Amino acid sequence: MDLQDIGKKIRQARHRNKKTQQEIADQCGISKSMLSKIENGQSAAAVATLSKISDALSIPLSWILDNESETDLVLQPKAKRQYKVGHEDMGYSYELLAKSRFSSVEPAIVHVTPKDVNLRNEPYTHTEDEFIYILEGSIYLMYDNEKHYLEKGDTAYFKGTKPHLFVPVDNCGAKILTIFIDDAE
């Protein structure tokens, strides 16, 4: 799914919810201009921002990222999976592994951009808890103003509401299995 498709789905959901861009932007802590650019496919949004938008619109993040119909069985053949949504200037890209409206768990693979290319240095937050498993490479997990080194095989589980960021260690980048867990009741 490209940026135009993501923006179109956000705009449709916002209209269905009878919300203005300003209302959603205020709720997400972003500018109305930024939301407009996202809706028009003119700007890539970090997964944290998309998560906040999906929460504000009461829709699953997976629905924004994938346009397959909902079912109680989710099969995602590698050949049909959307690969690397996002841009390198965000500091990472990701691929959604499964989507479901019946679950509060959303698995994805995050591809952390190599050190010389990664321009992102501001931590972000989102409402979901997050579990990560380093598949390839190594990162520094910046979490709540502390720096933690993680390499292949290491895991972490943390609150997404605390500021965090995946920082590349080298120019090899990293590949991370990420599971977002919405623990809201």
TrEMBL record:
CDD domains: cupin_XRE_C, HTH_XRE. GO terms for cellular component: cytosol. The keyword DNA-binding applies. It holds the Pfam family Cupin_2. Residues 10-64 form the HTH cro/C1-type domain. Keywords: DNA-binding. GO terms for molecular function: DNA binding; DNA-binding transcription factor activity. This is Helix-turn-helix domain-containing protein. InterPro entries: Cro/C1-type_HTH, Cupin_2, Lambda_DNA-bd_dom_sf, RmlC-like_jellyroll, RmlC_Cupin_sf, TransReg_Diox_bact_type.
